Amino acid sequence: MTESFSFRKEARLLRPQEFREVFSSRPHRSQSQAVTIWGRPTQGESARLGIAVPKRVVSRAVDRSRLKRQIRESFRHHRAQLGNWDLVVQLRRYHPAETREQLTADLERLWRRYFRQSSKNR
């Protein structure tokens, strides 16, 4: 059977309360210069993702949408390895000159940290 890389509702943090639970539960945090990933282990079946790209960091809507798509795409490809985490990806800094590859490399590095953490919790 092939693995599904879809991004269904079950894989998302949708309500503000779900975001608050991640932030208020003494979350594990991994960060690079541009991205912070907040996470907390859960009893759920697999990882879920919330994305925070503030207007004060990325003012143009088209850029915010593109960055969110890129973050979702990266998460979809790593979701199976991440275990049972609720994760919030927060963009802290953005420069239009930064390439897509730089953000992807940052996310790859941060996902690996959570994968190692998830392996320890099993």
Keywords summarizing the entry:
single chain; 122 residues; alpha+beta; Ribosomal Protein S5, domain 2; four-stranded mixed beta sheet; 40% helix
Please tell me about this protein's structure.
This protein is an alpha+beta fold and 122 residues long. It has one domain (9-121): 2-Layer Sandwich (Ribosomal Protein S5, domain 2), CATH 3.30.230.10. The chain has three helices and four strands, in the order αβββαβα. The protein has helices at 16-24, 61-78, 100-121; strands spanning 28-31, 35-41, 48-52, 85-91. Strands 1-2-4-3 form a four-stranded mixed sheet, sandwiched between helices. Helix 2 (61-78) runs parallel beside helix 3 (100-121). The mean pLDDT is 87.
Q: Give me the number of helical elements.
A: 3
The whole-number mean of residue pLDDT values reads 87
What's the domain count? 1
CATH architecture: 2-Layer Sandwich
**Text of the CATH class:** Alpha Beta
Distance between the termini: 24 Å
* Largest sheet: spatial strand order: 1-2-4-3
Using the coordinates shown, work out and report the CATH topology.
Ribosomal Protein S5, domain 2
Number of strands: 4
